[in-house]
């Protein structure tokens, strides 16, 4: 069963719709250059709209350790997602499960990345797009993903209802993560796109089981 994370939630109605559609995890972006940025106070309020058994993920990009601790003091995050150039030591210090995102381009040694971040819960692969840190809606060349990785693989980058089944068939990731591909506008989720995306994942999982 492929797990599903829907990232970049900024509205309570989207949090609820995403959870009701069957997502396993939702993500809050604590990166102030993102159009999906939420303050810790907003995220704490959004978190209260989420029903039980949905994992709450906090996304950070090269934040200070003080800022991460400040967010953790206010928002009941289950998992941290580090989407910048954070070192393994930085990621580990919070004593929380974390995902390390790698922006993939030719020449990046993903086997070595997985070894370096061996304490991570998973390696999240996103597209490398010059001048941005992620959440671009761009996909990357999946043939750059090694067959064997020592960490669970979370595939992201330009996924949507039209390509997620092919991605799962080819890569067999542990989970998929999407933001742009299920939006009506940046930071605003489209409930029909979310439902179509989740439906595609469930259908291909059934076919492959
Ligand atoms: O969502 C953002 O704005 C964002 C900003 C900075 C780093 C990562 C961000 N989002 C993550 O990017 C990937 C791919 O997103 P998309 O589906 O291609 O839009 C995903 O993991 C988001 O969580």
UniProtKB/TrEMBL annotation:
<comment type="pathway">
    <text>Amino-acid biosynthesis; L-tryptophan biosynthesis; L-tryptophan from chorismate: step 3/5.</text>
</comment>
<dbReference type="InterPro" id="IPR011060">
    <property type="entry name" value="RibuloseP-bd_barrel"/>
</dbReference>
<dbReference type="Pfam" id="PF00697">
    <property type="entry name" value="PRAI"/>
</dbReference>
<dbReference type="InterPro" id="IPR001240">
    <property type="entry name" value="PRAI_dom"/>
</dbReference>
<keyword id="KW-0822">Tryptophan biosynthesis</keyword>
<protein>
    <recommendedName>
        <fullName>N-(5'-phosphoribosyl)anthranilate isomerase</fullName>
        <ecNumber>5.3.1.24</ecNumber>
    </recommendedName>
</protein>
<dbReference type="GO" id="GO:0000162">
    <property type="term" value="P:L-tryptophan biosynthetic process"/>
</dbReference>
<dbReference type="InterPro" id="IPR044643">
    <property type="entry name" value="TrpF_fam"/>
</dbReference>
<keyword id="KW-0057">Aromatic amino acid biosynthesis</keyword>
<keyword id="KW-0413">Isomerase</keyword>
<keyword id="KW-0028">Amino-acid biosynthesis</keyword>
<comment type="similarity">
    <text>Belongs to the TrpF family.</text>
</comment>
<feature type="domain" description="N-(5'phosphoribosyl) anthranilate isomerase (PRAI)">
    <location>
        <begin position="4"/>
        <end position="199"/>
    </location>
</feature>
<dbReference type="GO" id="GO:0004640">
    <property type="term" value="F:phosphoribosylanthranilate isomerase activity"/>
</dbReference>
<dbReference type="InterPro" id="IPR013785">
    <property type="entry name" value="Aldolase_TIM"/>
</dbReference>
């Amino acid at each position: 069963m492929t797990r599903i994370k829907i990232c970049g939630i900024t509205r309570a109605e989207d949090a609820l719709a995403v959870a009701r559609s069957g997502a396993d995890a939702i993500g809050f972006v604590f990166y102030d250059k993102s159009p999906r940025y939420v303050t810790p106070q907003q995220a704490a309020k959004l978190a209260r709209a989420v029903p039980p058994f949905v994992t709450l993920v906090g996304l950070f990009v090269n934040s200070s350790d003080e800022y991460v601790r400040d967010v953790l003091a206010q928002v009941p995050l289950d998992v941290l997602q580090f989407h910048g150039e954070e070192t393994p030591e930085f990621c580990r210090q919070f004593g929380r499960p974390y995902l390390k995102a790698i922006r993939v381009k030719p020449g990046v040694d993903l086997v070595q990345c997985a070894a370096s971040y061996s304490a991570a819960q998973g390696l999240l692969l996103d597209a490398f797009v010059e001048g941005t840190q992620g959440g671009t809606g761009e996909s990357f060349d999946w043939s750059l993903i090694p067959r064997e990785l020592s960490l669970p693989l979370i595939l992201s980058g330009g996924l949507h209802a039209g390509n997620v089944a092919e991605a799962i068939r080819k890569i067999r990731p542990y989970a998929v993560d999407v933001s742009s591909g299920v939006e009506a506008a940046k930071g605003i989720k489209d409930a029909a796109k979310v439902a179509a995306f989740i439906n595609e994942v469930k259908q291909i999982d059934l076919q492959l089981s």
